[in-house]
Design goal:
Elements (H helix, E strand, L loop, with lengths): L1 H12 L1 H4 L3 H23 L9 H28 L11 H7 L2 H18 L4 H4 L17 H13 L1 H26 L12 H12 L12 H18 L1 H18 L11
C-alpha cells in the first residue's frame, strides 16, 4: 500500500516522465494556473493603486497564503516520492540529492520566502519576487518537452561555434573601447565621458548592439572614423550567433523529419 501510494503520487506529479492520465493532467494544469496567477499577482503588487487599500492587501495576503500551502504540499509530496526514481533510490541520501536539484530548489524558493518573513523583518513584496522563479517550471511540462529538447540540442551541437563567436565579440568590444578611449579621452567635451577603457566598454556594447542611447558620443575626427569602422565590423560579428543558431535549428528540423530505417521483420 505504501509503495503503491508513493508510485501513484510520483506519477501524478511527473506526467512528463511516467504517465499521461486524466488526474495528472488536472493536477498539473491546476499548478500551471496557480503559477501564472502568482506571476500576475507579483506584477500587480508593484502597482501603487493595487496595494494601498486594506482589502486589497488582505486579498493578496490570502491568495499568497493559499499558494504557499499548495506549493508546500506539492514540494513535500515530490520530496517524499522522489526515491521512487532510481536516481534517488536511497531513502535519506537520495532525497538529499533530490533537494539539491535545480527543480527542487526552484520549488523551495516558491514558498520559502513566506516563512522567512515570519521570522525576519523583510519587505514581503520584495522577497516574494522570488516566486517568479516558479515560472521556470513551466518549461518542464509535457506539451513543451519536445520543443525544449530541440532548443537544448541546438545549443549543445553548436556550442563550439557559439563560444567562438562570443570570444570574437568580446575581442571586438575590448578593441573598440580601447580605440575610442585613446581617441577621445583628451577631448575637452567627450573626455569627461571616455574617462577610462572600462568606461568606454559601455559605449562599445551600446554601439555594437546597434542600441545607440547617445549618452556617449565621439567628438574627434579619429574617434568618428574609428566608430564608423567599428560599427560596420560589429554588424557582421554580432550577427554571427543569430546565424549559427538559425542554422542549428534548420539542421535539427531536418534531422527530425528524416524517416527512421526500421527492420521490416521486428520493427526496430
Amino acid at each position: 500500500m505504501y509503495k503503491t501510494t508513493k508510485h501513484r503520487i510520483h506519477r501524478l506529479l511527473h506526467p512528463e516522465v511516467l504517465g499521461n492520465e486524466r488526474w495528472d493532467k488536472f493536477i498539473n494544469i491546476f499548478i500551471i494556473i496557480l503559477i501564472v496567477l502568482n506571476v500576475i499577482a507579483v506584477m500587480l503588487e508593484t502597482v501603487p493603486g493595487y496595494h494601498d487599500e486594506e482589502m486589497e492587501q488582505r486579498l493578496f495576503y490570502y491568495f499568497d497564503l493559499f499558494s504557499v500551502i499548495v506549493f508546500t504540499i506539492e514540494y513535500l509530496l515530490r520530496l517524499w516520492s522522489s526515491n521512487h526514481d532510481p536516481k534517488y533510490r536511497h531513502p535519506v541520501w537520495g532525497r538529499l540529492k533530490y533537494m539539491l536539484t535545480p527543480e527542487a530548489l526552484i520549488d523551495l524558493l516558491a514558498f520559502l520566502p513566506f516563512y522567512l518573513v515570519s521570522v525576519f523583518t523583510i519587505d514581503l513584496r520584495i522577497i516574494r519576487m522570488l516566486r517568479l522563479l516558479r515560472f521556470l517550471r513551466l518549461f518542464q511540462l509535457t506539451a513543451y518537452m519536445k520543443a525544449t529538447q530541440l532548443i537544448i540540442n541546438v545549443f549543445k551541437k553548436r556550442a563550439n561555434e557559439l563560444v567562438l563567436s562570443l570570444i570574437l565579440m568580446l575581442f571586438l568590444i575590448i578593441i573598440a573601447s580601447s580605440a575610442l578611449y585613446f581617441a577621445e579621452h583628451l577631448h575637452p567635451v567627450s573626455g569627461d565621458q571616455f574617462t577610462s577603457i572600462p568606461a568606454a566598454v559601455w559605449w562599445a556594447v551600446v554601439t555594437l548592439t546597434t542600441t545607440g542611447y547617445g549618452d556617449m558620443v565621439p567628438m574627434t575626427i579619429a574617434g568618428k572614423i574609428a566608430s564608423g569602422i567599428i560599427m560596420l565590423t560589429g554588424v557582421a560579428i554580432f550577427a554571427l550567433p543569430a546565424g549559427i543558431i538559425t542554422a542549428g535549428f534548420l539542421d535539427e528540423f531536418r534531422d527530425n523529419r528524416k524517416p527512421k530505417d526500421n527492420c521490416p521483420h521486428c520493427g526496430k
